[in-house]
Specification:
The complex is a heterotetramer, with two copies of chain A (about 280 residues) and two copies of chain C (about 250 residues). Chain A is α/β, with parallel strands linked by helices. Chain A has ten helices and 13 strands. Chain A has a single domain, classed as Glutaconate Coenzyme A-transferase (3-Layer(aba) Sandwich), CATH 3.40.1080.10. Helices cover about 30% and strands about 25% of the residues of chain A. In chain A, strands 1, 2, 3, 4, 5, 9, 10, 11, 12 and 13 form a ten-stranded mixed β-sheet that branches. In chain A, α3 links the parallel β3 and β4. Chain C is of the alpha/beta class. In chain C, α1 packs across α2 and α2 packs across α8. Chain C has one domain: Glutaconate Coenzyme A-transferase (3-Layer(aba) Sandwich), CATH 3.40.1080. Chain C is built from eight helices and 14 strands. In chain C, about 25% of the residues lie in helices and about 25% in strands. Classes of the chains: A alpha/beta (about 280), C alpha/beta (about 250). Chains A and C meet through loops of A and loops of C.
Chain lengths: ~280, ~280, ~250, ~250
Amino acid sequence: MIVSLDEGIRELVRDGDTVALEGFTHLIPVSAGHEIIRQGRRDLTLVRMTPDVVYDQLIGAGCARKLVFSWGGNPGVGSLHRFRDAIQNGWPVPLEIEEHSHAGMANRYVAGASGLPFAVMRGYTGTDLVSHTPNIATVECPFTGERLTAVPALNPDVTIIHAQRADRRGNVQMWGITGVQKEAVLAARRSLVTVEEIVDELEPLPGQVILPSRVVTAVAEVPGGARPSYAHGYYERDNGAYQAWDPISRDRDSFARWLETDVFGGAGAAREGGR
Amino acid sequence: MIVSLDEGIRELVRDGDTVALEGFTHLIPVSAGHEIIRQGRRDLTLVRMTPDVVYDQLIGAGCARKLVFSWGGNPGVGSLHRFRDAIQNGWPVPLEIEEHSHAGMANRYVAGASGLPFAVMRGYTGTDLVSHTPNIATVECPFTGERLTAVPALNPDVTIIHAQRADRRGNVQMWGITGVQKEAVLAARRSLVTVEEIVDELEPLPGQVILPSRVVTAVAEVPGGARPSYAHGYYERDNGAYQAWDPISRDRDSFARWLETDVFGGAGAAREGGR
Amino acid sequence: MSTVTDYTSDEIMTVTAAHALSGAMACFVGIGLPSTAANLARRTHAPDLWMIYESGTLGAKPGTLPLSIGDGVLAETADTVIPVPEVFNYWLQPGRIDVGFLGAAQIDRYANINTTVIGDYGDPKVRLPGAGGAPEIAASCREVIVIVRQSRRTFVESVDFVTSVGHGKGGTDRADLGLRGAGPSRVITDLGVLEPDPVTRELTLVQIHPGVSVDDARAATGWDLAVSPDLGRTPEPTAEELAVLRALTGK
Amino acid sequence: MSTVTDYTSDEIMTVTAAHALSGAMACFVGIGLPSTAANLARRTHAPDLWMIYESGTLGAKPGTLPLSIGDGVLAETADTVIPVPEVFNYWLQPGRIDVGFLGAAQIDRYANINTTVIGDYGDPKVRLPGAGGAPEIAASCREVIVIVRQSRRTFVESVDFVTSVGHGKGGTDRADLGLRGAGPSRVITDLGVLEPDPVTRELTLVQIHPGVSVDDARAATGWDLAVSPDLGRTPEPTAEELAVLRALTGK
């Protein structure tokens, strides 16, 4: 239940898996993403509503075969250059994409969490997403005859999130903006939660979301594990790091140097609880 | 926005309306139900997952033409005798029923809150509810071909709930067991919330559900408005009152006397903020 | 552990039902006998039992027996309280619950359950509370345990209304309907324990309580009751179990 | 109120967009120009403006301009924070939002918006971030306001990818698709304001900013731009508006 980060990734993430590292600006599981890079996972189908810098890094490091997403960018800064390089030039490996809207992705997780094969929504109608994304369909209301949009459930092999706290039994507590993380964990076959700290008792807090331990496969204590994003109540977003990512990621060589020093270098791994 | 209880019922509940007074053991809007009786509303379609004593009272008083529900009883005590008398003997007026499961009703509210005409679920399969309740249908997953159950959205004309607090702008705060109340309010065309107290500022609390004022039509301050059910943080459930209801409700005459003294009598109305 | 012989038939039924729960099972609990049995189990041999009530309390650890599924003590002691739609959609429907505990007003030989109406639906002899969470608990929990007092009024050849599907018309009927949980695995009564036959799914008496005869059970059953050749005898409740149970119920 | 003439074209665009918001409107806000304009409006003439960010913060009242849709200041100042699925299912989809604010990488004469890709989808010239919340914001808000800098690269005859539907192919096309919101009611640029023709739904220049000519607007539009016979002139921003705006943006 309580594991080290490298053990958690080794046990739960396998080559070829569909993996969702979710987070909505807040609580992004960055250290877990770096550990996936360090362990050299390949052929992953990465899933996330808002792939940002850590997904750019995973893609640039060659971990991903496919990306399922609804908005990919460096929030407040601009584009993801490793992502662009992968889909425009196939570097370092070709990247297949499957593209949705936020509403569609959120509903796909909800369906996955609910044990249903699909979700019904109003969306996508008239957009070019319909012709470019195969798994958008229509369904007719059996009562009104109205035609609505259907999207298939998302059930990742493993969902990874970062939260503020867990107790020793593996119950997880997060608060602030909690995005789609609950649904992403409930929809997954396995789940890994990195946390700022493991405590004896979870003190109830306004706005908290609790994930009972029985839907959490493993918890790893990784203080700072969401940096450079933020952890409400623990540390602020490092906006400078997001800006600094832009020049690093524009160039393959500077990206390679960054990988070498910040991910594979001893300091980075030690800081993040990886090998 | 802030109204008296009698004004709220007069303005928001009309003869023939579909009305949901929701609550799940906790926070049942009993005083609002009594005010509906006092104002003599007729031909209501009453909706609730768990109709209990206050629905027995509304039915016995002749307010309802139809009941849409999933479990009707006096929790921990037994049957609802006014409800039984209405459907078995048509007294005081015939009562049509439409019967669902909890899962079905909850999903109907969710669809209503979501602006969808129906919800998809796994449920009802193989039960006799399917042949006795007309609005249960099947829908086929456009991706897997699997057949699932569909239920139509519930969109009450008015939903009435009881909550612990509201602020002066009409934002509502409740906590403890909050049941299906959020969805019932979001699904309704109009809504009335009775509260224990109106405060200047809503202090954030663990487990709170906030209903922003823009989805609340009116708020009435009715301290004790959930009695004999309970309001977490304010008062306990009066289990004796539920037990006392059983003999009162078994007999039409004793029920009529109860109506006269406890609902129409000056003391009851004054206590409950009614006319 | 000392055993005692001075107990009621409801008490041995409840103790036997509590024995069906173990470890850290997730148990969907209804009020009445199921709640009493689950709380007894949690206080005796199954301290990690994880109880979920349909009001939205996950992992409730009530210090006293709740009188309703929405008592404040459930919210105060729960790991978390969730909205009712999530109980059904995020927890029950995906098959996360190990055991569902159900009662019955009528039950038939394939463990189909009626809690809706006695007599004709349109012109009922007795109107009962209705379905509540039962149809989907019966459908989606990994297994279902039924607790019900045994009599010819309750154990009927054919239920007047199928509120919750047990094993349908027997055999593979349940799976053919697409239901994903295994359905009723045990029916625990004040006389003994019945289990579905592995093939036909017909309820079979597999165990009787002390002092009860097979003829007693047959006399309380509205169909020709099948009896296991390996009929067992329920062990007496222990003094500790009875003490804890009586402290819970206040009897 | 004194007016000033020393401002940038982005500033008058933002002030003009802020003017489009009033009262206690519910406004679905994206990061960048929309968020700046909405926060400016809330700090000037529309203090009751109710802002919803797609991260789940309802009624956010940030003291500083958030850098992302998920900044902590949004959660701290919100009336409530809800899960992302509820943002889309309980708030946007049922039509509870008055105004959606969208940007664009390309926009066509019927206000259809592209934020997905420049060039061919399978072999893109420039890969953009993608849809995010925009398709459903464009579909379900009661009206949509687009804020975008005007140039021939952006204002194109035909968008390379319809990420969000404006008025489709014009006329009643939008309603025929079953979309329930009214769609883009205004496109606010650094040169002026365009509105759809009431019948054809073709974007028509209805207002130009001080110092901008109709020829400037035509030169920045990739189709033969329709111009209203009642062409208006945007008022100069007030000194107070500019002061508040510059305090917000730190410029």
